[in-house]
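[Discussion] Sanity-checking designs against the backbone

I'm trying to build intuition for which residues belong where. Below is a structure token string of 137 positions. I'd appreciate it if someone posts a full sequence so I can compare it with mine line by line.
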């Protein structure tokens, strides 16, 4: 792993991947394995490259993992990563950085006014059904 790609791990289990904006991929590559519910790739195309027009087929896929992708547009965010309700690591996201939460928990402290884009599996039910709050006292 390069310093611009952070794999938040505990006991060889990846909890999250952070791709820093400075990352310069050597080639087009996916950072997640093919069985992951959200596929995270870093793609680098030269000028005038093309991707053939295509449709994505409707395929039924079943997952029991809820994952979340966050792209920080502007600002600065401290992210705390939890495993079994225990804090294991803290990282800071800067503009252009992205985070893929694979498993475990997370919390955010906004160090500057921030704008982010998030993607997660739907449909969304409600906060009480979807989230378990981690008591950090």
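Best answer:
Here's mine. Compare freely.
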């Amino acid at each position: 792993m390069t310093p611009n790609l952070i794999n938040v791990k505990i006991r060889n289990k990846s909890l999250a991947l952070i791709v820093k904006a400075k990352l310069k991929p050597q080639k087009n590559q996916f950072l997640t394995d093919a069985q992951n519910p959200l596929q995270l790739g870093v793609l680098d195309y030269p000028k005038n490259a093309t991707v053939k027009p295509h449709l994505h087929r409707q395929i039924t896929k079943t997952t029991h993992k809820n994952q979340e992708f966050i792209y920080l547009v502007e600002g600065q965010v401290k992210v705390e990563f939890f495993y079994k309700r225990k804090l294991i690591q803290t990282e800071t996201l800067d503009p252009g950085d992205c985070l893929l939460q694979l498993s475990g928990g997370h919390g955010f402290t906004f160090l500057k006014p921030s704008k982010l884009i998030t993607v997660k599996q739907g449909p969304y039910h409600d906060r009480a059904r979807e989230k378990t709050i981690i008591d950090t006292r």
